[in-house]
Amino acid sequence: MPSERFSPASCPRLIVKIGSALLVDTDGLVRRAWLKGVVADIAARHRAGQKIAVVSSGAIALGARRLGLAKGGRANLEDAQAAAATGQIALSHCWAELLGEVGLTAAQMLVTLDDLEDRRRYLNAASTLDRLLSLGVVPVINENDSVATEEIRFGDNDRLAARIGQAADAQGVILLSDIDGLYTANPHRDPTAKLVPEVHRIDAKIRAMADAGSASGMGSGGMISKLEAARIAQHSGAHLAIISGKRDNPLAMFDADGRGTIFIGEKSGNARKAWLAGRLTAKGRIAVDAGAAGALAQGRSLLAAGAVSVDGRFARGDVIDIAGPDGHVLARGLAEYDAADAAKIVGRRSDALEAILGYAPRSALVHRDHMVLL
Ligand code: GLU
After folding, report:
1. Residue 107's beta-bridge partner residues?
2. Tens digit of pLDDT for each residue in 29-53?
3. Does residue 115 register a pLDDT over 60?
4. Residue ranges covered by each domain of the chain
5. Which H or E run contains 112?
6. Are 264 and 254 a contacting pair, CB within 8 Å?
7. What atom in ligand 1 is closest to the CA of residue 88?
8. Local confidence band at 269 (pLDDT 50, 70, 90 cut-offs)
9. Which residues contact 175 (CB under 8 A, 6 or more apart)?
10. Are 80 and 60 contacting, i.e. CB atoms less than 8 angstroms apart?
């Protein structure tokens, strides 16, 4: 039954993410025959006018084999960096060769978390992607693991793929996985576990299902990072599908039977807000009381009176999280004050602020125009 919900063939721009466990076999070699099938799928879509970017894992796994490193090159950061540097060149070569065989040109982009978290650098990466796609080239993207450090790395290509989808203005993101979607329970352990075909909202129930999910051991993304990716995609208005990469020609197969889990994208109008929602890091956090949490949910700005505490070191304009009384992050936005001034006015009413600060206060701690609800 062809999927009526979302078909990879139906969106003008698509991101396809391929995990290490699919790309590299247990001996550390590229699964070329399978990859040829994926490339054939990409070529067919390309002929139909679709623009595709690939987010390809596998550098660490491939490099580890070449260097003879233990634990698939993931024993420590230095090993992972060396394995990535060694494996990436082989990985790019493989993509360039296989895409070349079907008449397509590959382009390589290696990005770090900061490249996409910093708004200016994000826009820069976005315009490179845009140009490549409009030239009909197939960008092959990976994290620049050879220079990324533990604190500033994505670590998994699921979230990277969603972020790239946003930067490329893609309407769809497909995560090819060793599992064919999100299950209600762990399908390896629970025979009653059922595949969830469609998710509109990622709530506590959906998150609990992901906790029971799978990870292959070779890459680093499990179901949790896939849900994070889905959240980023949904906010940017894109659909995200988790489908099995275990079949040959997985994109064509998905088109034919629609098997997988599709996270439906929100109708989102504001690209800047979507970028904000998709960020993975924040410079600080303001905790708010229940009254302020309610006001935020209704689309209001965060006032000093509703804040209870300030954490972190941030400057005016930095991205901060806003957490409710239970510690859950409700919203994210740009701070109107630096951390020191924000701390001074926490819990204070608007008419008291000028005397405390010694200058005319801003209308809010975080203005609703620079805030997204998560
Ligand atoms: N960037 C890593 C690599 O190429 C993979 C990250 C992941 O496992 O998702 O090996």
Report:
1. 139
2. 999 999 999 999 999 999 988 999 9
3. yes
4. 2-274, 282-373
5. none
6. no
7. 4
8. low
9. 17, 19, 158, 161, 226, 229, 240, 241, 242, 243
10. yes
CA–CA separation, 240 and 219 (whole Å): 19
Distance 77 CA to ligand 1 centre (A): 13
Cα 199 from Cα 261, distance rounded (Å): 7
CA atoms of 7 and 23, how far apart (whole Å): 23
**Residues forming beta bridges with residue 286, ordered by sequence position:** 310, 322
Class of domain 2-274: alpha beta
23 alpha carbon – ligand 1 mean position (Å): 11
When pLDDT is cut at 50, 70 and 90, the band that residue 218 belongs to is: very low
Is the predicted pLDDT of residue 3 greater than 50, yes or no?
no
pLDDT interval class at 276 (50, 70, 90): confident
pLDDT given at position 206: 92
DSSP 362: P
**Which of 30, 143, 150, 158 should be mutated for ligand 1, with most atoms under 8 A from CB?**
143
Q: Which atom of ligand 1 is nearest to the CA of 83?
A: 10
The pLDDT assigned to 6 comes to 61
CATH 3.30.420.40 fits 282-373, yes or no: no
Tokens in use for 190? 């629970």
> Six-digit token pair at 6?
């979302």
What's the CA gap between 327 and 276, in Å, rounded? 20
* Residue 145 alpha carbon, nearest atom of ligand 1: 1
Residue identifier of the C-alpha nearest atom 8 of ligand 1: 219
pLDDT confidence of residue 188: 82
Give the whole-angstrom CA distance, residue 266 versus residue 72: 38
- 136 φ/ψ sector (left φ>0, alpha ψ -120 to 50, else beta): left
Helix (H), strand (E) at residue 344: helix 339-345
CA-based angle 244:143:314, to the nearest 5?
A: 120
68, 363, 371 from 157: Cα distances, Å: 23, 39, 26
Q: On the CB side of 76, how many CA atoms lie within 13 Å of its CA?
A: 1
Average pLDDT, rounded, for the chain: 90
Across the strands, what pairs with 174? 16, 241
pLDDT digits (tens, 9 = 90+) for 295-335: 999 999 999 999 999 999 999 988 999 999 999 999 999 99
